Amino acid sequence: MTHYTYEEWLKYVRNDLESSTREKLETHLYTCDQCLEHYLQAVEANETSLPTLSNKQNFTDLVMREIVREMVPDTKNDTKDDTKDDTKLQKKPFYQQAVFHYLLAVAATLLLMFSGAFQSLVKYAAVFDSQSVQERKPSVTEGVMNKTFAWMDSLEKKEAIKK
How buried is 25 (Cβ within 10 angstroms: 0-12 exposed, 13-18 middle, 19+ buried)? Predict the structure, then answer.
């Protein structure tokens, strides 16, 4: 594994490298703790040249407002007043709400119950159950076990005959 020097990490922090070299260094950071230390030292040394935030709280609020705007786009008013609270969520249409789906399921269930659809299903199920009892075929596992026991019984009979 090749390690990069502190000077190379300084160039990386100052953005003085080509894009291919930058990608190599970024990929290397995932696997090398030693180079990560050099990178962190380079960031600390170059900290004075990085821009500072004058109002950190305002910056956080602006970022959060943009996140909410991305998640819930407002189609009614494209120009927003920054004094308004943008965190209010838009109301979903009635057919997209969970309550609507529950009520629809209840209505369908009641309709099927009162129309007798479930009763006819019970009759068909009873017919299939009675047929399966009459025409019961052993499963594959039961067949294998039965043949195994029959084979073992034949071996025991042969042993008894030999004695």
Answer: middle
Asked whether the predicted pLDDT for residue 88 surpasses 60, the reply is no
- Look up the pTM and report it: 0.35
What does DSSP assign to residue 50? S
Say how many C-beta atoms besides its own lie within 10 A of residue 95's C-beta: 8
**Cβ count near 38 (within 10 Å):** 20
CA atoms in the 13 A half-sphere facing the CB of 10 = 6
DSSP codes of every residue in 60-100: HHHHHHHHHHHHS--SS-SS--TTS-TTPPPPPPGGGSHHH
Can you tell me which residue has the tokens 């026991």? Answer: 149
Q: What is the pLDDT of residue 111?
A: 93
Q: How confident is the model at residue 87 (pLDDT cuts 50, 70, 90)?
A: very low
User: Using CB atoms within 10 A of its CB, is residue 13 exposed (0-12), middle (13-18) or buried (19+)?
Assistant: buried
Give me the phi and psi of 117, to 5 degrees please. -65, -40
